[in-house]
Amino acid sequence: MRTEDKIIELAAKLDNWFDSNAATFASENRSAQGRAIVRGIKLVRELDRLKKEGMAAIGVQLNDTNSTLGDAKVASLVETFAFAARLAVTLRDELLDTNAENEIWCMMDSIALALDKVGRGRAALDVLLDHPDVRVRAVAGAYLIDLDPERVVPILREIDEKGGGSVPDLRAHWTLLAWERERQSRFKSLNRSAASGLE
Amino acid sequence: MFKIWRLSEAGPNNLGLACTDEGLVLGQTPLVERRAGRFVAREQREIERLLKCAYRMEVAADRLMSGLATVAAALNADDQCLARIAAEHLKLPDLPSQEACIAVETEDILIKSDRRQNEIQKASPDDPKHPGWPKGTEGGRGGKFRPKTDAEIAQEIKGRVIRIAARRALRVSALKLLRLSAEVAANVIPILDVVADAALVLDVADTVSQFWKLSTDVTAAFDFAQHGPRSFEELQVSSSGYEEFSNYGDFVKGELALEAIAKRFGSAGDGCQYHHVVTQGGANADNIPPEQLQNTNNIVRLPTLLHEAVSGMYSEPSPVKGMNMYQCLQTQPYAVQREEGLKILRRLNILK
What we know:
The structure holds two protein chains of two kinds. Chain A is mainly alpha-helical. Chain A contains nine helices and no strands. Chain B starts with 16 loop residues before the first strand and ends in a 5-residue tail after the last helix. Chain B has helices at about 45-55, 60-75, 80-90, 100-120, 150-190, 200, 205-225, 230-235, 250, 255-265, 285, 290-295, 305-315, 325-330, 335-345, and strands at about 15-20, 25, 30-35, 40, 270-275, 300-305. By secondary structure, chain B is α+β, with helices and mostly antiparallel strands. Chain B has a four-stranded antiparallel sheet. Chain B has a two-stranded antiparallel sheet with strand order 5-6. The chains are: A mainly alpha, B alpha+beta. At the A-B interface, helix 1, helix 2, helix 3, helix 4 and helix 5 of A face helix 4, helix 5, helix 6, helix 7 and helix 13 of B.
């Protein structure tokens, strides 16, 4: 099972844990309450472990982006970007973990910047616009909207209009809002940050 | 070499088989349980799931099922002696550790959750989630399941979305509390897995009271979800027309402005909070006149967990590096901020 699927499963277990212990928490049985809390802590530790593992896996791929990137490395970075998108959205969607989400977005920034230095540049990410996973399409669109708006805008609009209150449709909506109002995009702002020495 | 099988005494530290008022337990988990006033042996696949967790190996439970049925029958006949003899003949070893005991309890929670799901699937035609044709419907369809109407489907989806939002916020709160507990436990015993009795090392009472508060928040959010999205008027704190509250001093200190609202309308109520459609802090505190922020058209009442779900939407990374959406939206005119604020409420199906 993939890391993000394991996180979704554990999040559901956390819900079950809360529901099934409501009566215990309402009781005076301190021993049962203590045991319930220990079980919950084990779930939290498992979640933390999965998150750490996932972020470490992305970090490993980023470590050697300073050397010349061959085709194989580019393909590997694109794959890592897709994984990072899924992980970021899952942590945010399932657990409202915005700290982890922001950290992973910084890693995706680094991937986009590394890709932009070789070959087709960050256009290498455009294969992800056809990715079957909406989480990946929405995030890839955020990094490519200024590069190929004719292709990206309809993809994001479709995700936005489907709605549902999840992160991908919100991400699509806000990427479109910034683009349509101010021609603003994530990658443009990355370049500005780099130029002003903020990177 | 003889192995002597014996029952254990039930209790918080029990790891063996024990007969209790609630049935036959292994550690803390029932293998024979009371349902609708009678003792019944649990289904074979449930027993197998539990024993797999207990002993960390596949266990074929078919050899145990007749013995468990005997225990159940004896308990129903109030024959404690026979129940205990039959239980000993199951020849089940004690659980190897407290950790295994907790693992079995956790698996039991999941099994019961699966059971609830299955019960929902088998609901009667009267169940609003699975509606039926009324008695006497032509074509002999009376009493049979009927397709849901579009309105019913929409209502169900909207309620589900709100519940998901509340769940997410709930998980955050639960995780915070559990992390706090984990820190306390780690300070006392570095390896949680060897904790023999968690009650001895955790400040349980304090944590439990916070969970209890969280339960109130959950109830408020789910009550809200039951009735689906509201009109803006229904979310407003006042039905008697537009009112402004602040002067410049209130505006500069947002919390004072909120206190003023509380003085006029009272607190938002158990499990609820006030929410500003156009956010009141950050750059808005300097750029938008207080009257535009502290008024009954901008302040609505939401269940706390839904309010947290809405706030979470604003903390998303924005298209501008270094800014989240809360900060990014505040660079936009008031009308755009209001429109986007309302869209978030609609996206979560809080607002019609």
